[in-house]
Write a structure and sequence with these properties.
The protein is an all-alpha fold and about 375 residues long. About 70% of the residues lie in helices and about 0% in strands. It contains 17 helices and no strands. Helix 1 crosses helix 15. The protein is globular and about 60 Å long. The chain starts with 9 loop residues before the first helix and ends in a 13-residue tail after the last helix.
Length: about 375
Amino acid sequence: MQQKVFFPSLDGMRFFAFFFVFMFHCYFGVPEQVSGNQVYLALNRLWENGDLGVNFFFTLSGFLITYLLLREEQDAGYINIKNFYLRRILRIWPLYYFTFIFGYFIFQFLIRLVGAGVTETANPWYYIFFLGNFNSIVNGSPLSGTLSVLWSIAIEEQYYLCWPLLLVAFRKKRQFLFWGIIGISLAFRAVYADNKDVLFYHSLSVMSDLAIGSWLGWWCFTKKMGQKSLHFPSRLYPIAAYAIGFTLIFFRKEIFVHPALVVAERLIYAIFFGFIIFEQSFFSNSFYKMEKFRLAGYWGKYTYALYCLHIPAMVFTEGFAMMAGQGNSLWWLLWGKALSTFLLSLAFSQLSYRFIERPFLRLKSFFEPLVKVP
């Protein structure tokens, strides 16, 4: 069996990517009750770009999947596409379809139970076939927030379906594959620069994130970065890069206003996130190694469940708050919602791993790559 590839800092980075998305959802919009509260407005401003955590997930997925597939090709002599699909199915499908069932069927039952006269606008067939991102373009955002987060899982699955086939087909010209995908993505974004939904949700708009991560995985593998000792001449270099990157994130809405910058926005952030992955994975003198943050690393292993289930957790905490007559109170909107939902999300992720994910993950070992015998 292939020796496992492990980058110890990536689990912690996964957790913080999730945390950015989580806080974005907790402080999304400004309810009328807190429209004049400076603390809430500051929190809203701080986390209003937290959706970029999804961009980081895309870039990281491209890096890891490509690196692992190339490692399999090196050790086994070829990429076993069937087994790759089976591993992805065992990892993604059980929780995905559980989340879909909750978001489409159980959520509608709950809102009818409380007397809300609304009906879900999402077409379930899009979600059944991992096309939820196109549902958001065609039918708008789903009523159920639980369904709304599944658009990114749909794009990941589309990537998993196509990418090993493309790697095999372009085995001798892979460097052109990456640049071709990035070029197509930029051209597509230029055509639809005025359509925010298409820019945000469409697979062709998003795939530059995955392409940058995939290129990084290919480059690091072919250059044998894992066998080299890389050092920054000074720790000021990564600090400066992080400062520039997070400035671009915080002032995103002020910076990315020109049409040309709107087209290049995802690419710019993907390059920054690729730098973070590269710096954390291969440099020995980082300013801070995320692997030292063991608590983040621990919960980073559960980010798939945290991402999928934090909205169901929010449904329950908001429901209880409303029943208690506190749903519109200042303390709830400022910190009660975020804290209670975060804790319930952690609990849900543990239950998900034990009862939904782990029984299927145990089967993955039957489809792991084998080392080629000389």
